[in-house]
Amino acid sequence: MPVMEDALNTGHRPIRSFVLRQGRITAAQSRIIDHRLPALKIPAEKPWQDPWNGQRALTLEIGFGNGEHLAALAAAHPEQGFIGAEVHTPGVGSLLLQIDHAGIDNIRIVHDDVVTWMKTLPDALFQRIIIQFPDPWPKTRQQKRRLIQPEFADMLCRLLKTGGELQLATDWADYAEQMLTVLNQTRGLHNTQSDKGFAGRPVNRIPTRFERRGEKLGHSVYDLVFCRVNR
User: Fold this and answer.
1) Which residues are marked as active site?
2) pLDDT, the chain, mean
3) C-beta separation of 83 from 42 below 8 A
4) 155 with 222: CB under 8 angstroms?
5) Residues at the annotated binding site for S-adenosyl-L-methionine?
6) Which of 7, 93, 105, 226 has the CB geometry, 3.0–4.6 Å to 166, for a possible disulfide?
């Protein structure tokens, strides 16, 4: 699943971890975006304002794809606040349709470059951050575009509350190993597995259409679960 982040890079042209593709947007998605997105969008260019005024534990899902996982999680936990970040407009439309159909009122959306936005956020903001199936950029020359790099891992750690959880999943074995190495070396992140290896599927992670398609192709899924500890 492609994600929207602009990889951390200072002093040079940014290396983006996403490519904007001209995905097909349906008439229903277009209508719901016009109707609902203005009220639910978090403007990435403006200073952070908590939509729930600090009264709810916050989860951030980066690159939510078609939104089915985020919608299910938010529906299961109406007492919490959920922020989904996605750059691809059809995915935003899909999530909005699910929100409208199910009457979900605890999701807000960042439809922009989430890394640039994350840089502006205060420390210890999220109880949980979820990144599922980021673009694997499988070719060697492309791997500098991968989202999970040391600088980005440091920022994820900074944005988690102490005791907060970072969940990741990928179906690319070599990217899974890279993630594991980077996160195990990130100060302030603790691998929840005693052997510092991969985790079982988190209870909240439902199999999405994207994952089911990968399983039909014989792809294994690798889960990683870390928690934030005092540095």
Assistant:
1) 135
2) 90
3) yes
4) no
5) 61, 86, 113, 135
6) 226
pTM comes to: 0.89
**CA 89 to CA 18: how far, in whole Å?**
13
Calculate the CA 184 to chain-centre distance: 19
User: Strand, helix or coil at 84?
Assistant: strand
SS3 87: coil
Q: What is d(CA 106, CA 99) in angstroms, rounded to the nearest whole number?
A: 9
Sole residue written with tokens 């005024």: 53
Distance from C-alpha of 74 to C-alpha of 128, rounded to nearest angstrom: 13
For the chain, which domains are there?
54-228 (3.40.50.150)
pLDDT-based confidence at 21, cuts 50/70/90? Answer: low
Q: Does position 61 have pLDDT exceeding 80, yes or no?
A: yes
**Which is more confident, 142 or 191?**
191
> How far apart are alpha carbons 231 and 228 in whole angstroms?
9
For 229, other C-beta atoms within 10 Å of its C-beta total: 14
Interatomic CA distance for residues 27 and 29, integer angstroms:
5
Q: Tokens 């990217």 sit at which residue?
A: 175
